[in-house]
Amino acid sequence: METQLTINGTQHKLDLDPRTTLLDALRHHLGLTGSKKGCDHGQCGACTVMVNGRRINSCLTLACMHDGDEVTTIEGIGQPDNLSPLQQAFVSEDGFQCGYCTPGQICSATAMLEEIANGWPSHVTGELDASAELTTEEISERMSGNLCRCSAYPNIVEAIRKAAGGGA
């Protein structure tokens, strides 16, 4: 099935089996291996990417469902010599240990900060018109779909808070 995707600003025309997940298209057909296959059931968040600005688990969606969509992976957020503020905060706050979950964590946190900027509530926020204060509870709730086997959560929360301008 012919599918056109814009990945990190570059258009790609792919001829894929219609059963190919977005994650497998990224990793095996385009060589973008930053997004990881952790559980392959949408439970760990290692495969998190942004599609049209919204975070999704790329292991749970078919590539052909995103024909014409804009996909941002960790490779599109920053480069080793030009890190995004969030990536830099992960480094300075030691927000990773083994690093396997880090691409999904950073993609999810990038989208989460945009959600907060747009006034999206969470269970912790409580009110639809309330702007979210970046408490540990708020960040933890919003990042609950991303697991870290190494338990670097306190450092991940501090990195997100620092990138958002809340200091560490």
TrEMBL record:
<dbReference type="InterPro" id="IPR036010">
    <property type="entry name" value="2Fe-2S_ferredoxin-like_sf"/>
</dbReference>
<keyword id="KW-0411">Iron-sulfur</keyword>
<protein>
    <submittedName>
        <fullName>Xanthine dehydrogenase YagT iron-sulfur-binding subunit</fullName>
    </submittedName>
</protein>
<dbReference type="GO" id="GO:0016903">
    <property type="term" value="F:oxidoreductase activity, acting on the aldehyde or oxo group of donors"/>
</dbReference>
<keyword id="KW-0408">Iron</keyword>
<dbReference type="InterPro" id="IPR012675">
    <property type="entry name" value="Beta-grasp_dom_sf"/>
</dbReference>
<dbReference type="GO" id="GO:0051537">
    <property type="term" value="F:2 iron, 2 sulfur cluster binding"/>
</dbReference>
<dbReference type="GO" id="GO:0046872">
    <property type="term" value="F:metal ion binding"/>
</dbReference>
<dbReference type="InterPro" id="IPR002888">
    <property type="entry name" value="2Fe-2S-bd"/>
</dbReference>
<dbReference type="Pfam" id="PF00111">
    <property type="entry name" value="Fer2"/>
</dbReference>
<feature type="domain" description="2Fe-2S ferredoxin-type">
    <location>
        <begin position="1"/>
        <end position="77"/>
    </location>
</feature>
<keyword id="KW-0479">Metal-binding</keyword>
<dbReference type="InterPro" id="IPR001041">
    <property type="entry name" value="2Fe-2S_ferredoxin-type"/>
</dbReference>
<keyword id="KW-0560">Oxidoreductase</keyword>
<dbReference type="Pfam" id="PF01799">
    <property type="entry name" value="Fer2_2"/>
</dbReference>
<dbReference type="InterPro" id="IPR006058">
    <property type="entry name" value="2Fe2S_fd_BS"/>
</dbReference>
<dbReference type="InterPro" id="IPR052914">
    <property type="entry name" value="Aldehyde_Oxdr_Iron-Sulfur"/>
</dbReference>
<dbReference type="InterPro" id="IPR036884">
    <property type="entry name" value="2Fe-2S-bd_dom_sf"/>
</dbReference>
<keyword id="KW-0001">2Fe-2S</keyword>
